[in-house]
Design goal:
By secondary structure, the chain is α+β, with helices and mostly antiparallel strands. The protein has 2 domains: 2-139, 2-Layer Sandwich (Fructose-1,6-Bisphosphatase, Chain A, domain 1); 148-254, D-Maltodextrin-Binding Protein, domain 2 (3-Layer(aba) Sandwich), CATH 3.40.190.80. Helices cover 32% and strands 27% of the residues. The strands form 3 sheets. The chain has an 8-stranded mixed beta sheet with strand order 4-3-5-6-7-8-9-10, sandwiched between helices. A 5-stranded mixed beta sheet has the order 12-11-13-15-14, with helices on one face. A two-stranded antiparallel ribbon has the order 1-2.
């Protein structure tokens, strides 16, 4: 019952925060740029402030980590909420609807509950350990494709593969997969978890960029973790795929 309650709370919170972002979407919003040259908007801040406020009211002993306002100390170190109010701000600020509100609940170091809401397409993806993965109230599952020859891989930006030492892996991926599609951010993980593509890859990833995805992919029958096969959200990179391609894809990126 505890995980079920957390899942309901996370899902509602992601939805309500997503509706806040729509008030700013395609409204001529101008970004600011952080020291790492990533953009932030008033929508990012408003959504995260709302999410943090609701968590603090509901679960005052829980810790919080968010992209825009950092970490908050709390009496409990066993429960931590991980927030990205807008994953895909570069898409958001250009009026591209492929962005998401990401909320994950880490319990004793493992993400056990996750919700990802995509306001621009009105898609909710949510999961909790043992409770399944749900896509707009339908059961979500990764695809059953087991051949690169008919598989599709998504990515966010091709520049990062070379920048973060994955140029050779990226070249092998492009040659092996039937299709490779970009402009993905969090939306690529939605596509992979719902069986519409087979893989999504990011050679660099902050913890808030992937808070809900470990449990979402476990419950959808797939894999989310590092490029060398370690499941989870703490590896500074992300690779998600279905079960049928996992071993071959990990070998492919490793050059085996």
């Amino acid at each position: 019952m505890e995980l079920d309650n957390y899942l309901q709370f996370a899902t509602e919170l992601a939805y309500r925060a997503g509706r806040i972002t729509l008030g700013y979407f395609n409204a001529g919003i101008r970004p600011e740029y952080k020291p790492d040259d990533t953009p932030v908007t008033a929508a990012d801040r408003a959504a995260e402030e709302f999410i943090r406020g609701e968590i603090e009211k509901k679960y005052p002993t829980h810790a919080i980590l968010g992209e825009e306002f950092g970490a908050s100390a709390a009496p409990s170190v066993t429960h931590r909420w991980i927030i990205d109010p807008i994953d895909g701000t570069k898409s958001f600020m250009r009026g591209v609807p492929l962005y998401g509100v990401l909320i994950g609940l880490e319990i004793e170091g493992v993400v056990r509950v996750g919700a990802a809401y995509y306001p621009g397409t009105d898609e909710m993806l949510a999961a909790a350990d043992g409770l399944g993965c749900w896509w707009n109230s339908r059961r979500a599952h990764v695809s059953e494709e087991s051949s690169f020859e008919r598989a599709c891989a998504c990515f966010t930006t091709c520049h990062n593969f070379e920048k973060y030492g994955r140029k050779d892996s990226w070249e092998r991926i492009q040659k092996a997969f039937y299709q490779v599609r970009g402009w993905s951010d969090a939306y690529g993980y939605l596509l992979a978890a719902t069986g519409r593509v087979e893989a999504m890859l990011d050679p660099v990833m902050n913890v808030w960029d992937c808070g809900p995805f470990p449990v979402i992919f476990r419950e959808a029958g797939g894999y989310f973790g590092s490029w060398d096969g370690r499941e989870g959200h703490l590896h500074n990179e992300g690779l998600a795929c279905n079960a049928g391609l996992k071993d071959r894809l990990l070998d492919l990126v490793a050059g085996k």
